[in-house]
Amino acid sequence: MQIELLCALIPLFPLIGFLINGIGFRRVPNGLAGTLATAAVLASFLTSIYLFGVFRAGDNQTIVATLFDWISVGDLHINFSFQIDQLSLLMLLVVTGVGTLIHLYSIGYMSHDEGFGKFMSFLNLFIFFMLLLVMGSNYVIMFIGWEGVGLCSYLLIGFWNKNTSYNNAARKAFVMNRIGDLGFLLGIFMLINTFGTVEYLDVFKQATSLEIGDKTILLITMLLFVGAMGKSAQIPLYTWLPDAMAGPTPVSALIHAATMVTAGIYMVVRSNVLYTLAPLTLEIIGFIAIATALLAASIGLLQNDIKKVLAYSTVSQLGYMFLGLSATAYTAGMFHVITHAFFKALLFLGAGSVIHAMSDEQDIRKMGGLRKALPVTFITFLIGTIAISGLPPFAGFFSKDEILAHVFEHNKLLWALGVVGSGLTSFYMFRLLFLTFFGEFRGTDEQRHHLHESPITMTAPLIVLAVLSAIGGLLNLPGSGWLGDFMAPLFEGSRQVSPAAFAESTIEHSTEYILMAVSAGVALFALIVAYVMYISRGAVPAPDTADRSLPQQVIYNKYYVDELYEAIIVRPIRGMGDALYSFGEGLIDGVVNGVAWLVRQSSAQLRLLQSGSIGFYVLAMVASIAAIFALRFFIRF
After folding, report:
1. Which of 155, 172, 278, 287 suits 37 as a labelling partner, its CA being 20 to 30 A distant?
2. On the CB side of 229, how many CA atoms lie within 13 Å of its CA?
3. Cβ distance 149 to 126 under 8 Å?
4. Is the peptide bond before 236 cis (omega within 30 degrees of 0)?
5. pLDDT, tens digit, 9 for 90 and up, residues 538-547
6. Does the keyword section mention Electron transport (predicted)?
7. Whether 16 contacts 36, CB under 8 Å
């Protein structure tokens, strides 16, 4: 009973916070609203820590806590239950821990917004649905959380709804996620048809008896991955995520760091038995992942909006995570999810601190020299930049290196492309750092006068996340990592169906050290190139109207992917809809108006028969009686 209560309390706290602030956001004072929302997520975090202790004390045995019977249709029974194991606990700690810091940061960042209480309630609702997604013991509860975070992203991205472009960005995110969600839903239907259940433990137990390459499993995994492509922004469903920068900065940190975009990674790791049974799906995932990583990284090279650079960085890092999963390096992929949550939340919140100081300016061409005015923001942002670039000894180096090591063993071409992507990441991140914090200030005198460090509610989360970004690699050091040992029981089914995929690495230690050196060396080389360009030579990106070479023009305009989608998908569908609307409107209006005209004309002629002549009325009665008798006669014979 204690476990059921603990499991219920974790999502219940943010739900209560949402209800209080959501219902009373016009009456609850801002100070109280921020405190309630943050305390709700903090309570979930503390409860998760306690639950983690209970789980460890119980010898790491999977716990299924059933709250109530939910759906029963024939032989299909779906309980509303939570599954507590290594994967759900890791996600709980990351979601609630980073979520607490983002809520605290929001108190300082959004305190002057007239919709502050509503904003905090939406953040709480987002956390609630994300907790359902990671805690559910079956695919249906996961789908509820999956759809819930999609809804909340729509509400938060379009929070400043008086701006039409922000509303369009929110709608784009919602629609593109629905495309992926259709595939995810079809995958769930196929699971029900194949296994007769949606419970993780039951599905995976039955799946271990199937052969590798089973066509049904191949189709299921592909459909589920379509859902992951939408949520985790992989080609071709990635364009919504950079546009999601329209939302307030804490929203960007929440969506891009530890919650919504990692849902696809979580789903694949959770379904590792199914994906191990479908090596073709993993190969497809690998090539889509590296294409996404390189495409997004190349776009990030020339972006000048501080949040857009980080947005394309997120798309690229998600590609790295899927690249690891494609090589059955499920632990490495999850390791990068955790470290990415630390340094990407740090970078987005640091960007928010810069925007706050710059009076809402986001163009890095108008910044420069901010390290003196924003010392805490600068130091923490520097740590986050080093971490994401894959430079030792910070967290990103260890997680990215582990992914690349597994990929090297799996496919040398993908490894080489991954190293190139790592170099691109290092270049555009240090370009961002140098243009923002070094050189001469390029803003207005009014902005210079306004420059100041952010309040403690904003800098405290930065410091905590900077520490985690620095030491996060200790979770899974090469050789004998705690995370690898902790997550090992999750992959027993995969080991059973494909022992070769989980065999001991054949890479010699000397080769492993060379791979580490190559990865770090490429990142360091990219750092030096960025330093020479933007510090030594003092280069500043050209204005939007400047002439550019054809390759620069293509990359600067993000390969015209949005324009392509507009031309081949949006406009034809909109045109077809307009045509059908016009046709339907013409047909329906024609029928309705035609009936009205016929009635009107008939009544106009019939009223002429009301002449007032009694003789005519008697004649009409006799003629009508004769007609009735004649009709009866013909009907009888």
Report:
1. 172
2. 25
3. yes
4. yes
5. 888 888 888 8
6. no
7. no
> Chain-centre distance of CA 103, in angstroms?
18
Contact predicate 285/267, CB 8 Å: no
Question: Is there a contact between 400 and 316 (Cβ–Cβ < 8 Å)?
Answer: no
Tokens representing residue 490 in the block: 């999750």
- Nearest-10 crossing angle of helices 263-270, 215-231: 160
Q: Are strands 76-84 and 63-73 parallel, antiparallel or unpaired?
A: antiparallel
Q: Which of 384, 385, 389 shows the shortest CA–CA distance to 401?
A: 389
Q: 86, exposed or middle or buried, with CB in 10 Å at 0-12, 13-18, 19+?
A: buried
**DSSP letter string, 16-67:** HHHHHHHHSTTTS-HHHHHHHHHHHHHHHHHHHHHHHHHHHHTTT--EEEEE
Which of these, 398, 603, 601, 602, lies nearest to 515 by C-alpha position? 398
What tokens appear for 268 in the block?
């694949």
Neighbours of 244 (CB within 10 A): 26
Nearest Cα residue to 225 out of 279, 181, 178:
181
Could you tell me the end-to-end alpha-carbon distance of the chain, in angstroms, rounded to an integer? 82
Q: Residue 488 CB: number of other CB atoms within 10 A?
A: 14
d(CA 347, CA 288): 26
**Nearest alpha carbon to residue 79 among 157, 136, 23, 7:** 136
Q: Rounded to whole angstroms, how far apart are CA atoms 575 and 580?
A: 9
- On the question of pLDDT at 258 being above 70, the answer is no
Please give the structure tokens belonging to residue 57: 């004390």
* pLDDT tens, residue by residue, 183-203: 999 999 999 999 999 999 999
**Which amino acid, residue 270?**
R
149, 129 Cβ separation under 8 angstroms: yes
Tokens describing residue 536 = 């030594």
Q: If you average pLDDT over residues 116-145, what whole number do you get?
A: 93
How many CB atoms within 10 Å of residue 628? 10
Which secondary structure element, helix H or strand E, spans residue 381, and what is its range?
Answer: helix 375-389
Task: Write the single-letter amino acid at 20.
Answer: I
Return the structure tokens found at 480.
Answer: 């004998």
- What distance lies between CA 532 and its chain's CA centroid? 35
511-524 pLDDT, tens digit each: 888 989 999 999 99
DSSP 549: -
Partnered with residue 83 across adjacent β-strands are 64
Under DSSP, the state recorded for 237 is S
Band of residue 139 on the pLDDT scale cut at 50, 70, 90 = very high
Which pairs with CB-CB distance under 8 Å and at least 24 residues apart come from 222-225?
A: 222/183, 222/278, 222/281, 222/284, 223/183, 223/184, 223/186, 223/187, 223/190, 224/183, 224/184, 224/187, 224/267, 224/268, 224/271, 224/274, 225/183, 225/264, 225/268, 225/281, 225/284, 225/285
Helix (H) or strand (E) holding 198: none
Q: Tokens 């960005």 sit at which residue?
A: 169
Place of tokens 């027993």: 492
Query: Rounded to two decimals, what is the model's pTM?
Result: 0.89
